[in-house]
Amino acid sequence: MKVLEDLYYSKDHVWVKVEGDKAYIGITDYAQDSLGDAEYIELPEVGTEFTAGDVLGVIESAKAASDVYIPVDGEVIEVNNAVAEDPSLVNSDPYGSWLVAVRLKDKAQVEKLMKAEEYKKFLET
């Protein structure tokens, strides 16, 4: 499984990339592999506010429908419509195909997520 060094990871197999007070959020290589070929992705609207642990959206595949849990508090400021229109992008490029960008409410929450090495160890358990 591919794990990128410059991202943060949740136990729900969601990655977070921080740029200032903005965070891009997507699913990991492990998550997309477990789900199989994504057929439909439901994403929130810009302006929606979330608390860490809330369901951010849903990814449906031939295997299953899976909720995507947001690991940080924030307000959606961008939605990746390309992924909604072509869900297979999360399979072919899970780390390049972010789902949403949020304005972080508490940057300290990001530091509580796993870094790449911790996430790799988590995957081994």
Task: Explain this structure.
It is globular, with a radius of gyration of 13 Å. It has one domain: RNA polymerase II/Efflux pump adaptor protein, barrel-sandwich hybrid domain (OB fold (Dihydrolipoamide Acetyltransferase, E2P), Beta Barrel), CATH 2.40.50.100. The chain is of the alpha+beta class and 125 residues long. Helix content is 23%, strand content 35%. It has a six-stranded antiparallel sheet.
Protein topology:
Layout: E1 8-9, E2 14-19, E3 22-27, H1 29-35, E4 38-42, E5 49-50, E6 55-61, E7 65-69, E8 74-79, H2 81-85, H3 89-92, E9 100-104, H4 108-111, H5 116-124
Antiparallel strand pairs: 1-2, 2-3, 3-9, 4-6, 5-8, 6-7, 8-9
Rg (C-alpha, Å): 13 Å
The dominant shape is: globular
Quick check: average pLDDT?
Answer: 96
CATH top level class name: Mainly Beta
Tally of separate helices: 5
Structural class: alpha+beta
Element-level helix/strand string: EEEHEEEEEHHEHH
Please count the beta strands (DSSP E, at least 2 residues each). 9
Number of domains: 1
Q: How far from one another are the termini?
A: 14 Å
Q: Describe the biggest sheet?
A: 6 strands, antiparallel
In what order do the strands lie side by side in the largest sheet?
Answer: 1-2-3-9-8-5
Low-confidence stretches: none
Proportion of helical residues: 10-25%
* Fourth CATH level, the homologous superfamily: RNA polymerase II/Efflux pump adaptor protein, barrel-sandwich hybrid domain
Strand content: 35-45%
Short description:
By secondary structure, this protein is of the alpha+beta class. The chain has helices at residues 29-35, 81-85, 89-92, 108-111, 116-124; strands at residues 8-9, 14-19, 22-27, 38-42, 49-50, 55-61, 65-69, 74-79, 100-104. It is 23% helix and 35% strand.
